[in-house]
Design goal:
Length: 700
């Protein structure tokens, strides 16, 4: 039942008044709205924030097995997320930002309890995030919030369970098909009348035996400490350690994709690089103080993480011989005055990556002319490169939230960030994509580059009626190119994204909705260009992104709730000349007027939830419409529709059982389909049906 135009679901959504994430309602006439701090750095109900945001709350997360943040974010309009492994990895796109990331998260700031998880160049890994320790997740879309340093796509904030929350203490044991296992323990409590401790230990693993080279396992532990100081001040600190091993399966060609659709198995990859992965160890420490003196609140944060990884990728194996270190601080002040709130602060983060090394693959199979046609292991061979890099981000921010009367809220402010890159590189050997073998490297190179990123914002919310707000905003953000992009193309400039948005938000006891229309022109947009396996990054000139988003929910009674979402996008290049290799020469091909690849014109989904007594159930169905597979717009992928996820749970006193089923009907589809400039088509296949039964015991 393919819907070629993709508009019928929109009619269904409007007819049913479909869902906004994270809005709760209880007694008749009483409205309970989730709060957010991510967009404005002050606690504010989501209905009063003049920006498109979403909150995935505690009750929604309770129905997920939460192996990956994808499970929490996949029902938010304008947010595209998937995972190659099902473990910690995620490819995340918000309103087109993050599209160029081949792996990891880029162009989007990710935080945990106000502490950035993103590197100073906006690149984010999630290997040290314990997904079993999440209270709620906040999503602020596009330019225009004070947390998003150099990130045009907005911010994702993960709020962990408080050290003072004794209701969060529990034991979980879960098992499922695909070799899935989950073990989680959280114990904590007050050690005196002012101090609390909480210990969390989690073990997750998946064999993923439906596909070769796709195992995942991680062990994580954290210790949180909180102390209530005099005058209501609170100091919270945490130290955590994580070890994660993740095999990243390769893509498949058309023939192998058809075999997968017939059998449900992926027995290999059509790529030469058959042993990609990321194997990491991470220490993470942070400390956060909140001091209140009358109308002034001071919130200093200091944080540090250090990590090691072994990271085989296309053509090369990366290893951090000396651990990479990330040290940062954020000094925030909040002043409440008669007509509003003034927030201001400074931030600084430095990443130091000394003695990072790259190696050739040791075990390879070669064909004619010595071309590498397959790897036989992920063992490292000859040293190819030594790199010493430092990235420093410094920034200031200021925002006035003015409330001239009870109907109006006006936010006016800006961030200003400066990012300095410094890299010294010795390249002895390199993988040459044209010949398909290792050749002599470029020798010694040095890169020093500075980006200046102003990000002003003006936004206003007006209460038309109780529970009904209209808003408008205009904002700008500069996007930090990631260090790997700069090292590939030192001539890169920082893109500038602007966002013009209007929207309407409604909150009532048994229904709610959020809707927005936005225009997001981007100049100097960075796009990923693939030419016969060679991935490069270049400024596209200009792109124009327009979109509409709707999300809503309706409670039929105290037992039933219906909801859903819809996103329509029209993303086009307005100026872009794409380099295409023709024979031995490179020819620029004009792409102006073409649609950006991968982002579907229509994205939508519906859900139904039910609870009665100790029972609860939820079923959702999600769709990505068709999209172009390349910037030349020569071929489309049909997308996928109505992938169904379901859960059924029962709570009895301190015991609960939950059965989760992802891709319930075992649909076989491609999570990503792309075509490079040589005409080569590849598919990353979507995960099959995954079942998991979880037992939880709540300590009380």
């Amino acid at each position: 039942m393919k819907n070629k135009k993709g508009m019928a679901p929109f009619g269904v959504l409007c007819a049913c008044s479909l869902a906004t994430t994270g809005v709760l309602a209880s007694d008749a006439g009483k409205v309970l709205d989730e709060v957010s701090v991510t967009a404005t750095r002050e606690t504010r109900s989501t209905g009063d924030v003049p920006q498109a945001i979403a909150v995935v709350g505690k009750e929604t997360l309770a129905d997920k097995k939460m192996f990956n943040v994808k499970e929490a974010l996949q029902e938010v309009p304008g947010v595209l997320i998937d995972s190659k492994n099902g473990g910690f990895d995620a490819r995340l796109i918000i309103r087109g930002a993050g599209l160029k990331a081949a792996y990891g998260i880029r162009e989007i700031q990710v935080l945990r309890d106000g502490v950035p998880l993103s590197d100073p160049d906006s690149f984010t890994r999630l290997d040290f995030v314990d997904t079993q320790d999440i209270e709620r997740i906040e999503i602020a879309k596009g330019p225009g919030n004070l947390f998003a340093a150099g990130s045009a796509g907005g911010a994702i904030q993960i709020i962990s369970k408080s050290v003072f929350d004794t209701q969060a203490n529990n034991l979980k044991i879960g098992a499922g098909n695909l070799g899935t296992q989950n073990y989680h323990l959280r114990v904590g409590g007050m050690i005196d009348d002012r101090q609390a401790l909480a210990l969390t230990v989690t073990r997750r693993e998946m064999d993923n035996d439906w596909r070769t080279w796709n195992r995942f396992e991680t062990t994580q532990a954290s210790l949180k400490h909180g102390i209530q100081l005099g005058d209501g001040d609170i100091l919270e600190s945490e130290v955590s350690y994580a070890e994660s091993d993740m095999q990243l399966p390769g893509a498949v060609d058309e023939a192998m994709f058809q075999t997968f659709k017939q059998t449900g198995k992926q027995t290999g990859t059509s790529e030469a690089w058959k042993h990609s992965g990321r194997y990491s160890k991470v220490w993470f420490l942070n400390s956060r103080l909140e001091m209140r003196r009358g109308d002034f609140t001071f919130k200093p944060r200091i944080y540090y993480n250090t990590w090691y990884h072994y990271h085989p990728v296309t053509g090369i194996i990366n290893e951090t011989e000396s651990w990479v270190s990330n040290l940062g601080m954020d000094l925030e002040g909040n002043y409440r005055h008669a007509q509003g709130t003034l927030v201001a602060g400074i931030t600084a983060r430095q990443e130091r990556a000394p003695d990072s090394r790259k190696y050739e693959y040791r075990d390879v199979t070669t064909g004619g002319g010595g071309r590498i046609v397959a790897t036989r292991s992920d063992a490292k061979g000859r040293l190819a490169e030594i790199d010493d890099a430092t990235t420093l981000l410094t920034g200031v921010y200021l925002q006035e939230s003015w409330r001239p009367n009870e109907r109006w809220i006006v936010d006016a402010g800006m961030r200003y960030d400066i990012v300095d890159f410094d890299d010294n590189n010795q390249q002895f050997r390199k993988y040459d994509y044209a010949s398909g073998k290792y050749v002599a490297g470029a020798g010694t190179t040095q890169i020093s580059k500075t980006f200046y990123l102003p990000a002003p914002k003006i936004a206003a919310s007006y209460r038309l009626l109780p529970g009904l707000n209209v808003y408008a905003m205009a904002a700008q953000a500069g996007q930090i190119p990631s260090f790997s992009e700069v090292s590939t193309n030192p001539a890169l400039e920082a893109p500038i994204a602007r966002n013009y948005e209007i929207g309407l938000k409604a909150r009532a006891a048994d229904w709610s909705f959020d809707t927005s229309v936005y225009v997001n022109p981007v100049s100097k947009d960075i796009v990923q260009q693939s030419n016969g396996g060679v991935t490069t990054y270049l400024n596209a000139g200009k792109t124009d992104k327009k979109g509409f988003e709707f999300a809503g929910r309706y409670a039929l009674d105290k037992h039933w709730e219906l909801g859903g979402y819809y996103s329509y996008t029209k993303y086009r290049y307005t100026e872009f000349s794409e380099p295409v290799r023709v024979g031995a020469t490179t020819v620029n091909q004009e792409r102006a007027g073409n649609t950006l690849p991968f982002v579907p014109r229509n994205q939508y989904g519906v859900f139904a939830g039910w609870k009665q007594g100790g029972w609860r159930a939820r079923v959702s169905a999600n769709t990505w419409g068709e999209y172009w597979m390349d910037s030349a717009n020569t071929q489309k992928y049909e997308g996928w529709e109505w992938i169904v996820n379901a859960s059924l749970g029962y709570q009895f006193q301190q015991h609960s059982l939950t059965l989760n089923a992802d891709n319930l009907f075992n649909e076989r589809y491609a999570a990503e389909a792309k075509k490079d400039t040589t005409g080569r088509v590849t598919y990353t296949v979507g995960a099959p049906r995954a079942l998991m039964l979880t037992y939880r015991y709540d300590f009380r």
